[in-house]
Amino acid sequence: MTDFTKNQSSDGDTIGALLAHNASRHGSEIALREKERGIWKETTWAEYAEEVLACAAGLEKIGVEPGKAVLILGDNRARLYGGMLAVSLLGAYAMPAYAGATLAELQHFLGEVEIVAAIAEDQEQVDKILELKDAGAKGIDHIIYDETRGLGFYEVEGLMSWDHLIEVGLHDLNEAPGLRDALLQRAKPGDPAIFMHSSGTTGAPKGIVLSQKNVLAAARNGHAAGAFDKNEDVLAYLPMAWVGDYAITVAAALLLRFTVNVPERQETVIRDMREIAPTFYLAAPRSWDQMLTTIQVGIENSTPLKKWLYHFFMDRAVAAETAKLNGKSGGALEPLGRLLGEAIVFGPIKDQFGMSRLKNAFTGGEAIGEDTFVFYRALGIKLRQLYGQTENSAINAIQAPGEVRLHTVGKPAPGVELSIAEDGEILVRSDSVFEGYFNKPEATAEALADGWLHTGDAGYLEDDGHLVVLGRVSEVMHTAGGERYVPNYIENRLKFSPYIKDAAVIGAGLDELTAMVCVDFEAVGHWAEVNGVPYVSYADLSQREEVAALLGEAFERVNKAVTKPLRLKRFVSLPKEFDPDDGEITRTRKLRRKVVQERYADVIAALYDGSKEVHVSAQVTYETGEVGKVERILPVREV
How many domains does the chain contain in total? Predict the structure, then answer.
């Protein structure tokens, strides 16, 4: 048994120090669970530390060292997380990429830094790397894979299984008794923890290296703000290339000894979540919306008695929660209704979706719809909002449990200073802020001017310190009449409708605002089935008159919430979703506005020239990688 006691640090200021501390003081506690072939396999902190050390020794053997990078490619797997930690111990760059990353996106990463190895989930990701090399990409001399299926007959130089890498590492650890200590103590607080990328909404993604000091400071700030407690059970399902996943399932998990539960596959997340029943859960608004849609679909397909009970208790709980969010009382009978509702309706729903043990539930990334937010709080899940960015390790501001408001993201977390520039930009200062964009001195100087991180977001602080985020400063636009607006702010409110998945608001320099929207195929498809509306495809469904009426209601609700000059006048429902593979949105579903406006220029023209309809030929990238077209005549509809 390895003795980790002498490797502990008094303040846990590095990944190695925390790993040693957890293995020494809490070695028998569960660090990881991973579901494989229907069975949850547990790994203790002592076992996890030993495997990470073996991985680090193996990676060092094949040339991983400071200044070089290891690509992490695939969906969430325990070994991929262990690989990231091992790379951090060596002072090198762990560079996670989205599982659906294209060859062009991966080629961009290769142009930034020397990638000497890759840790891939399975055959699909290995093939992607081999295709990249066949296309002339240099580097990635070694490929380590987790899932062995389909790879047994590959004869590729430098290709090896995870188990073989661990064997190599264990051999070196046993041959050099002092190597364990050296690996745990080698990295310093300023050394890399993770190499991530900006979303790339306005161009190529920029490299963002977060130090071990940055990510652990953010975890401490989040803990101090009450975002999470020690020993949380969390579900590792968010994309590994998104900073929110790293902040929770790696940094905070190390600092506060979370048990990280890795689902079997992305397709089994809901079922696996029910089995685990996590105590902490972070999801984007779209995920909360999808879960709400699934709940509502289930209720509509249930018996009349169940539907009556659901609406009896839920309608009253929603009314009470809405009153409380507006600073009023929930009513004298609310506690009794809550007690009965929990036993008959709320409890069973939460249990069905793995939310029965949730203590800390959060949404972030963009604004969440009022109806969705109130629904979960009425259900008994104390959903809260947080605000952060990759550049500051994910945590800036957090709503406290007793200070939840619909329009704010809470107060700055302890350890975070917030200020508002003269032009309305939100400025941040904290130990969690990165030191600059990788090899981009000009962009760094602009982002960190005057000792503050210039977030690029517009917002304001209320008198009591709560932060309101409006949207991107670069997207503050003006109509021809000089009316100021933030398109993302209006787009988010359109997406509060369960029937709208994406939206693009048009109007800069023009007399009035219009929009293009993409319907949510699952939600609208279910509505169509319930209401007997026939359709044969997404393109067909999106143009139905009955669906247009649904969309019109969403536009009317938004128009009631904005000033008269900013009311939306016309819209077009597009025949396909915005797709990251088509370059219209980023992997985190942020709109690439310039691409969309260029690609749908004819549609935009029709929204303003009095046309009643417009022909569109939209690009579609299929799962095979082939590119096709969807052609359709689209009605231009008045709101």
Answer: 4
